[in-house]
Amino acid sequence: MSAKISFHAVSRRFAHQGASFLALDRLSVDVADGEFVTLVGPSGCGKSTALAIAAGLIAPTAGEMIVDGRNVRGPGPERGVIFQQYALFPWLTVRQNVEFGLRIAGRRAAERRATAQRFIDLVGLSDFADSLPKVLSGGMKQRCAIARAYAVDPTILLMDEPFGALDALTRVQMQDQLLDTWIRERRTVMFVTHDVDEAVYLANRVIVMAARPGRLAEIIPVNLPYPRSEAIRLSGAFAEIRNRVWRAVYHQPARPPDGAVQANEKEMR
Amino acid sequence: MSESAEAAATQATSRRWAGRRQLLLNVVAVCGGIALWGAAVSFSRVGLPSPAQVLARAIELIRSGQLLVDLVASLSRVLAGFALGVTLAIPVGFLMGWYPTARGLIEPFVQFFRMIPPLAVIPLAIVTMGIGETPKVFVIFLAVFLSSVIATFQGVISVDKTLINAARVLGAKDGTIFRRVIIPASTPFILVGMRIGLGSAWATVVAAELIAAQSGLGFRMQQAELYYDLATIFVSLITIGILGLAMDRLLLALETRLTHWQERM
Questions:
Q1: Per CATH, which fold does A3-71+192-268 belong to?
Q2: What is the DSSP annotation of chain A?
Q3: Which pTM value belongs to this model?
Q4: Which member of B171, B187, B260 has the closest CB to residue A105?
């Protein structure tokens, strides 16, 4: 079976004030249907760029971005995106936010309402369905954004450091809730984070990336069963994988595999 | 989760009390100001009218209907110019914010004319448009248009890009993004522009009437000046202030209603 999401030597160069730099250098990764992969790496490793390319929000400057066997040309409702800054429409209530995509898809009011209610319940925001985002906490806002992404029934969820702005405690709760939702409503997930623990706890596979230029460093499988729990988080097996990912992130080879970077650094200056 | 609701309720209550306290202070300040004015007049030889004299003249002008005629004349000029200015400024501002080409073509004119005080256009307007209502409404229109168009344009270009991306990934195309994201997101800016526009409309109408008019609050002051009728000047000034304040409060209420979703500090 072919992969759900395929990066084929995807590169992205950004031009900035006359200079240009390579944000992503020939990334090749396949993600299987129903898989949960996390992308982790130091800042500047191109993990968010890779996600934005998969979302169709930015185009690759070289290589092919393939989803469901087709070249990506812009965003599509089959790929839900969750942003770090929540990106809720502040003038709409939780319910209206969740219904936004359904309205665009031209669903009827009754159907919209039923679908929205289902996902609002799923993320535990039933009591706040008619509240505006301004009264919600950070964690609640992100749960609303997750419900909004789920409501249009995407087959893929692309999450860009969704819990990055939350405190450590809320973060752990959100991770458990996300996995809980994912087990009940299975989707293919690509999840960007800079938190090694988070990357290991959530994923089937951890994709470790290196910086300057952003590129693939190592892919580390996480052979831990779902559902995951505190017991797993505190287990020796978890610690072992975590240590491996940690070393891959923090002790990256000083020099990239080829001469691409020297040229790049010259350009940055 | 009910904690945040409770906190919000407590906050609302304390805000209400703070609001009442402020209102009381406002009333005290106004009464104090009037008393000070009375005291200053009775102790000095400047020859300013006292509050009582001004009140008497106001009643006289209301009874004769003179004040109402002037007020309607000024107000209708302001409203006509304001309505025209806002109606044109909003679409033009959106156009400038949405299409870089439109921005390139329109911006030099807007930026240039913004630097010319609308009052400076009055002589030109009178020469080319005569002494009827047209030049006055035109000048007010210009003042309102220039302040509102900049605000609308600023509103459109400062819409959070993440919100636009969020709409795009949910399947929205340009038209939908414009209707459902750009317009609501820039509403607070537009309303601020309208309030600024209204302020400059008032400033402009009075000045225009001082220069060339046969009616209006500005004209009445100019007439009163000839007869050294300070009480009438005071009545006109106070009327202008009260009307401007009332209209500003009306727009503020509209703003609060339309943008209550904003997170305020």
A1: Rossmann fold (3.40.50)
A2: ---SEEEEEEEEEEEETTEEEEEEEEEEEEE-TT-EEEEE-STTSSHHHHHHHHHTSS--SEEEEEETTEE--S--TTEEEE-TT----TTS-HHHHHHHHHHHTT--HHHHHHHHHHHHHHTT-GGGTTS-GGGS-HHHHHHHHHHHHHHT--SEEEEESTTTTS-HHHHHHHHHHHHHHHHHS--EEEEEES-HHHHHHH-SEEEEEETTTTEEEEEEE---PSSP-HHHHTSHHHHHHHHHHHHHHHS--SS-SSTHHHHHHHHH-
A3: 0.81
A4: B171
